[in-house]
Amino acid sequence: MESSAWNEPEHALTVALEVVRAPLGQTLPTLSAVLEGLIPHRAAAKLTGYCAHYPMKTSGAAEVAERITSAELSRLAGVVPVGRPWQGEAVVAGATRQVFAAASAAAGSNGALLVLVDTPAEPLPEAAVRVVQRLWDLVCVHLDHRAADAPPGMAARSRAAASERARVIAELGEAQAAVLSGLLGTLRSRNLDDATARRTATDLAVSAMIELRSAADREQGLSEEPADAAFARIAAELDPLVRYGPVQLDLRAPDSARTLPIDTAHAARAATRAVVLAMLEQAELSRIHVGWQIDDDILRVTVRDDGPGSLASEALTVHRVTDRLKALGGRLVLDAVPGWGTTVTCTVPLGPVTAPAAHPLAALGTRELQVLDHLVRGHRNRAIAEDLHISESTVKFHVANILDKLDVDTRGEAAALARSAGDIAAA
């Protein structure tokens, strides 16, 4: 295993820079490539909550990568301790394989999982294990920042995708629970004589129900974040901005334990950070108050200062705060009173939002959006097939569906519609 180069700080920093500079859609392939010399593997997979549209992504040998499922990764996530890499055998890509897995310890990552598949069976050097863990933590911090600055169109689609996935998971859980409950009732019947069979089957059914619930909880952890945890993260980000300055920061955390959709949490933190930064640019400022409050199905973010009261909405344009809030059905109101200060109020609905359903690309499925992303880049069918590990005939099938659903006649028209709708690159 060629790992000696990793002992050089310059090499490690070069590798880290290469990974974080990669386009979002190439983050995993790039990470897999740079780790190949440290831990040989045939495929790599990640399961994260940074993009609700594409929580799972795979890379590597098609015969392995294409068969990896989110259910397999979710089960593996249940046994890999956060911040403590794990090596062993697990069912991945439909077979028992040797894998290496790391769950990120980075703040806000919710234990995002990296899995390297078909790795060496012998124990890996401790130094290599530490390097992979630290590099994966760095990647997760990078993805978190990219998610916080996601284009408005992507935020709307991610919100819709997360809601749909949660609905499907809930329905699946209810259906499976009903089946297993019926199974338990049958096996517990006094008309059955084989007590051992009943006991064994009962234990298996109970275990299946527990595993099903655990999978649902892990999915929820990737798509939601507690309001108090989300606020604690932005509070930690704001502290260095005022720690050694003349401005005092007053913080009021939400008094609700309600969970927020992950895209809402990202948008609320981005809005809070942008407003505070804009206020700090003013002169004659001594205090900024930041508060989050949940009223019914509304998250309300209030940022108030005691400055000159001259802050203009143009100061927030560069951060695209208004656009991001609108994508989630929210709004921003700025109230500046000369001599009394400025108050900025951002509101985001937490319940169902109708706006994402009306998005021009809302009718497209996950694979169709991936193909459309390639059309926007001007790629031909062969290049699309190679990148997505599918056949050219399958690409043609998806393109035909895209044209039909978007009600356009050509690939160019579909690409133009996608550009007008916003960035669709997958994380």
UniProtKB/TrEMBL annotation:
Identification of the protein by name: LuxR C-terminal-related transcriptional regulator
A Pfam family this chain is assigned to: GerE
Domain HTH luxR-type, residue spans: 357-422
Transcription regulation found in the keyword field: yes
PANTHER family in alphabetical order: DNA-BINDING TRANSCRIPTIONAL ACTIVATOR DEVR_DOSR
Keyword GTP-binding on entry: no
Keywords assigned by UniProt, alphabetized: DNA-binding, Transcription, Transcription regulation
